[in-house]
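re: ur question from earlier - yeah i can do the single chain one, its not a big deal. heres the input i used so u can compare w yours
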Amino acid sequence: MPTSIQLIAVPYHLDKERVGMGCGPEAYLQHGVEKILKDAGHAVSTEIVAQKDPVTNQVEFILALQKQVAERVSAALQRNQFPLILSGNCNSSIGVIGGMPSQPLGLIWFDAHGDFNTPATSPSGFFDGMSIAVIAGLCYNEFAETLGGCLPLSPSRVVLLGGRDFDAGELDNLQKSSVVSLTLLYFWRFFR
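and the output i got, formated as tokens:
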């Protein structure tokens, strides 16, 4: 069934525009994702998120960027469009969930990393490694509340698939939570 799709490109890796993984969204655009969707019968419009607000540090930049993502997801849904996010960051998921209407929602996270660190457990302070923790209400709650939507999302509504690389504090956070974590070893037992 044809759908109206709002492509939302977020060409950032942390606070760097069009660098590293931040080049991914525009690579999809340059290689014809809009045409592919249109050829399949969908109406497609595209927005590229650009963070221009003055900020003092990397975390503030990322949070301001995710506020824009949330606003664009919410606006697309209000126009009865399907928001399709092209992102170079795991943290864009915060903006996506923050832009969803407040209703029962679940998150299936396919990643080798848990992304369940908090500032207190992260050995590096790498913000992408905190994405699910922010969504689940373990940290940055004041910011998440400004987005509204489904934040915080109950950890019992989160499934982590394929995780294999966890920091010690992150693993402790996961074990204390109701997040369901299924590793590749779990699947290997059933499909070999």
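The helical segments are 24-30, 33-39, 58-78, 92-99, 131-135, 141-147, 168-176, 184-191. not sure if urs matches, ping me
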